[in-house]
Specification:
mainly beta, Porin, eight-stranded antiparallel barrel
């Protein structure tokens, strides 16, 4: 719990730093760079359940639109903000084991959830303004569930469900609005004529729960945790 609080405090501080540094324009060098484009990538998702549900990582796609505004170079840090609107596939892939903890492959269960997500990010770049640059992204993110579906495969005849399985199978998603903190690292190649090419890794820590988690409910935690690898292309509208 303490590590989680430190992580959240660090991400929040980074977002606030990126958002407030541009206010000190008299100290830094003013910029007015606005770029838009699109992004695409892959999600590797698990769900933080309490009680625990054994899982494999569930892979899904993500992609959408990106807008970025660079406002200032503050010493060697290039400061800006970034907004995205993305389609994102999440959920979990349950892992089945026998009494000896051997993996059972004759049946499977997946619950897929599709979201529209909007991250509000600070963008801090390090390196050359023209050429190769490394950057850090961090900030809050909200999401809206648009649909979900369960998938059962294999042999389920004469299967005795555990208490946790009985609680989760067939259970509807109860909270369709999500929110959390996201952050990541990346590298950008800036060209004069062809635009900007970015590659990055990002992690999303969901603070909300998609099931009800009151004392009378079975689960006390049900939240997506997402590792994402993506590429982005941006073209400049103003410099």
């Amino acid at each position: 719990m303490r590590k989680t609080k430190i992580f959240l405090a660090g991400i929040t501080s980074l977002f606030l730093l990126g958002a407030t540094l541009p206010a000190f324009a008299q100290v830094g060098e003013q910029r007015n760079d606005f770029a838009i484009g699109f992004n695409a990538g892959i999600n590797m998702n698990t769900v933080s359940f309490s009680p625990t549900v054994k899982q494999n990582s569930l892979n899904g796609m993500t992609g959408g639109f990106t807008a970025r505004y660079i406002s200032e170079k503050y010493f060697s840090i290039i400061c800006g903000v970034q907004l995205e609107v993305n389609y994102s596939q999440k959920g979990w892939d349950e892992k089945f084991t026998d009494s000896s903890n051997n993996t059972i492959t004759t049946r499977g269960y997946r619950h897929k959830m599709n979201y529209i997500e909007i991250p509000f990010l600070s963008h801090l770049g390090f390196g050359k303004e023209h050429g190769t640059q490394f950057y850090v992204l961090a900030g809050p993110q909200i999401g809206f569930l648009i649909n979900d579906a369960e998938e059962k495969t294999g042999e389920w005849t004469d299967v005795t469900l555990s208490e946790t399985e009985s609680a989760v199978y067939g259970k509807a998603i109860e909270n369709k609005f999500s929110y959390g903190i996201t952050g990541g690292l990346g590298m950008e190649l800036k060209t004069k004529k062809l635009g900007n090419f970015l590659i990055e890794g990002r992690y999303y820590y969901e603070l909300s729960d998609f099931f009800k988690t009151t004392k009378s409910d079975y689960f006390s935690r049900a939240a997506n945790m997402t590792l994402c690898a993506k590429i982005t292309y941006l073209f400049n509208l103003s410099k």
